[in-house]
Structure formats: C-alpha cells, structure tokens
Amino acid sequence: MIEFEHFSFRNGELNIKISVEDNDYYNNTFLRRIVITTTDSLGDGKTMPTYSHDSGADNSDIIVDTESSSYVLGKKTAEITNSSMYIRQSPTLFKDKALVVWVLCDYKVGSAIPPCGGDEELNVAILYDKCPIINEIVKTSKFVDKPCEIPKSFIDALLRYEAFKYAILAKDWTRVTKYWNKFYSKIGKKITTNCGCHG
Fold this sequence. Notes:
Structural class: alpha+beta
Order of helices and strands: EEEEEEEHHH
Largest sheet: 4 strands, antiparallel
Shape: globular
Number of domains: 2
Number of helices: 3
Strand order of the largest sheet: 4-3-6-7
Number of strands: 7
C-alpha cells in the first residue's frame, strides 16, 4: 500500500518521501499520519505511538509526528526532512538508533479489491544507517586473508547482520529490537563482532 520513494537516514539526516501506491486498489486511499520513533517503542509493531501534549508525558522517543497536519492528512504523498517543521527532536540525538517509520492510511475500497493483507492501514518500516555496520563488517574481513584459519569474526558479523535483515523482512519486530540493541546500538562507539568463544 505504501511506497518509500526516498528512504534514508545518514549522519542524523532524514530524507523520507512516502506515497500511497499508484494502483487501482488504492484509488480512494490517502495518508492520515506519519510518526517516526526509535525501536525503543516498536513493541509488536501493531500500535502506533501517540505524542502527548501533557507536560508530564514521556515523548522522548517521538522524533516526528504529523498528527492533524494538512501536509500529510488526505494526501497521496508526503516528505519528511531535517528542515521539516514536523520534527519534534533533533535526529542527530538518535544517530546510534534504528528508526521506526509508522505510516497510517485511510483505506477505502478502490476500483479493485487488493490481495490478502493489502488493506492494512498501518504500515511499519525500519530505517537505519548501513554505513557504520558495513564498515565494522569490513574490519573483520582482514581475517579472511589468513591462510588455514576460519574467519570466525567475519562470519559472525555477517550472520548477525543477515539475522537482523531477515527479522525486518519477516516483520518480527521483537527480534528486530533485540538484535539492534544487542549488536548495533553502540555502533560508532564500540561493537562486538565475535561471539566471545574465540579471540
């Protein structure tokens, strides 16, 4: 239902363009709301976090919330960047985090019936900076050059990253949060690329 035309988060810079898929299924479907948080509030991915105007509420995880915004509400396309007035927090504060993009649509049946699952109004996607992760994996690749030695650290780093990506594809949000916090939350500061059972 949702297409991410631009979808990047690098060095704290957001660049996201979201559109309702151009398809007969979604002739009468429009955007309602976009919220961006960190994985700290991802949970099972079924409940969109809500920004509260209560001064005592903890909104520290809400980076973007376009609630009641005419820029998004009733539109087919919306774009979020660092200069956007909808960013409630500086994304640079979240440079060590994976971000969760929640997109809520107003779905109404179009001129064709969508396939199974194609009418879900809440869409969730994960946005993270790949570069630090790839750089860390490349660092372990030096062990590949050593003859007669299994590059355990390199293999371990690759498998961890694959596990994280497959959890995203499977929409297993509990594992996504677990793997990110365990393997990558300290990236750029310190990352463990071995399993602890070898050097």
